[in-house]
Design a protein that fits this description.
- α1 crosses α3.
- By secondary structure, the chain is mainly alpha-helical.
- The protein has one domain.
- The chain has 3 helices and no strands.
């Protein structure tokens, strides 16, 4: 017979695994939403121009930063899909 601590450990273990799996699926969905938004902005000259103006003067963000992070997230999405995490 198992003790109470073993059941607590089991519950925590399964809970963490389930949360991580759900988080991975959510990340994949959010990256897809980011891609859709990026395409929407890039296809609309005024939106693209206005966003660029903000990024050009923002102290913490830039087009380079957005592009770099976007590419990293796309790479992560590809990895998750190619390795059957989602």
């Amino acid at each position: 017979m198992t003790d109470h601590l073993a059941w607590e450990d089991f519950g925590k273990l399964i809970g963490i695994i389930n949360r991580i799996e759900a988080d991975i699926k959510n990340v994949n969905v959010q990256i897809r939403e980011l891609k859709d938004l990026k395409e929407l902005i890039m296809d609309h000259p005024t939106r693209k121009s206005n966003l660029k103006k903000i990024l050009d003067v923002h102290p913490d963000y830039s087009i380079t930063w957005v592009t770099t992070v976007y590419q990293k997230l796309q790479t992560l999405k590809t990895y998750l899909e190619d390795n059957n995490y989602v």
